[in-house]
């Protein structure tokens, strides 16, 4: 509130510079918003020179001050304040404003040095060309302008590298991030930069280079656990499952330990790179996984790789975490690696089933069935609507809400149906064919699912209906196999025919159909079907199996169990029959 005194302005601006740095350092959090103190300081400078700029924005205000204030003793304080302004604008990702400011701060000689050749970054060239004003012993600074310039260079390179990475310009991103890695920053920021370099290299299709950068990040700062998470992802891409599981195990163990007290890596720097770089893409790349997510990934990857015993152990550990209130521990923003909880239960049941723990699998499935049954409506219409309301109308919002409800109902229906399916296979493995038939024949498989797979459905519901179609097919096939075990061959034949209607040309269903016809002593029909199956090329079978979207993991084991097991024996019998028939015809 004191009147402006021109001789005191250099001291006043230096005090403002120190004060802003102390404020930033004391908060120790990312810089946000405008620096109101800088604005007030510039207005006082203009006031001392007999000018005003109350109505100007910050960019226009800086332009007016630097063009109209020519006093030599004010140049150094204004340049230091300009560097602080650049820090605020970098934190807001206003890179154009930063470039414009350094254009104003630069002399003609600086501008000549800032001329960048092809491949150089214009903003970095301008910051590097800026001449740091000399310090005056009578005006001590809490952080030198020279150090601040280095931090601005590092932050500018890091921010632009992240922007290019997000835009998919990977070579440019790699160059800028490498520039940032050679800059002025703390160990934890350096580890973050190397992590981003690893992600960039991975997206460029260079997994080995990505591993080098990620390992470098961990060497610099082993507490940079997102780097370890990315290491596991790269090993998965390379198909090195042992190394991937080892990385996930290390990550899980590290997340379970209390991190050491974080001592400031740069205690004498109030303005630091980490306060200037806080973009959504960086937050995404450095997202810290919850231990339960890593435990699930271990279980999932073991199950996918056929390591059944390990998968069972990890799934049971994960399910025990559910008792500790997992919903409060895992982010609900869609970034989590966890699927819906019923799917985890079904995957666990699949692992237990493959491990021979059939009763435990039945118990786990019963939990899914009991929890989802009350969530399925009695009538579920999934057919296409011929007329679609306009996207902006209230009717469209209502239709969107109804569609979301239908998708959720279809998911619940699929989970319950999959629970019965797994129970059917588990009872079959226990030798209880009658109980298996009961599970495969649950009324929802004959009613709601049948309607879903037989009617034309809305496109937005197609993924859920495809899963139901596959469950319907596997249930019919499983029940048909059990009917064969029970000697009820006519019923088995009907189920195999129905399963072929859902999945035409499927080799497993076609093989079982041939076997059922053979057991019914309809050998001529069986031989004709077998010849038709034999003439279909392996490519056609593979194409049939590969149609649609990838199967949920919890259905993979059911599909493997549905493979026809006795094709060679059946083929020999039919070939003998055809040979004998040919001899009879010739004689």
Automatic annotation (TrEMBL):
What processes does the entry annotate via GO biological process terms? interstrand cross-link repair
An example of a Pfam family matching this protein is TPR_16
**SMART domains, per the entry:** TPR
Alphabetical GO CC annotations of the entry are: Fanconi anaemia nuclear complex
- Name the PANTHER family on file: FANCONI ANEMIA GROUP G PROTEIN (PTHR15254:SF2), FANCONI ANEMIA GROUP G PROTEIN FAMILY MEMBER (PTHR15254)
Can you say what this protein is called?
Answer: FANCG protein
Organism of origin is: Prunella fulvescens (Brown accentor)
The gene name reads Fancg
